[in-house]
Amino acid sequence: MKNQIFTRFIAQFTLYIILLAGIAAWPLYKMSDAMTIEGLASSLGLFYFLTIAAFAVITRKKAEDDMDVFKNFMLSMFLKMIVALVYFFIMMKQYKDHELHFALSFFISYLVCTGFEIVYIFSNLRQI
């Protein structure tokens, strides 16, 4: 059952990211420079894998009660946030003169991926 939930999450999340990237590709291509597109792609790629890893932490074992699910959820969000902040501070040094563009693409990617994860978890909480 857990494997089926995890596989369904990956399939739906991948489709969601591809659709959003496809919708955002044309305006970004026309209105922004290569550094902004590169920053968005790297942030989106990082958060894609971090979100899958965070969902794996949440569903990694059979939770005995709701508190176990909550603890796993909080642990996954904490680890995701720490990795994201380390990545953010390292990449801010690389994107000199484009800090605002990178910061916006970083936080948009973070919110899009985390939002999908939270909505998916809450809508399937009984199965987890």
Topology summary:
Layout: H1 2-31, H2 34-58, H3 66-94, H4 99-123
Helix pairs in contact: 1-2, 1-4, 2-3, 2-4, 3-4
End-to-end distance: 9 Å
> Mean pLDDT, as a whole number?
84
Order of helices and strands: HHHH
The coarse silhouette is globular
Number of helical segments with 4 or more residues:
4
Rounded to an integer, what's the Rg over CA atoms? 16 Å
Per DSSP E runs of 2 or more residues, the count of β-strands stands at 0
Low-confidence region ranges? none
Strand content: under 5%
Largest sheet: none
* SS-based class: mainly alpha
Residue share in helix:
over 70%
Description:
With 128 residues, this protein is mainly alpha-helical. It is built from 4 helices and no strands. Helix 2 packs antiparallel against helix 3 and helix 3 runs antiparallel to helix 4. The longest helix is centred in the first third of the chain and has 30 residues, at 2-31. The protein is globular and about 50 Å long. The model has no long low-confidence stretch (mean pLDDT 84).
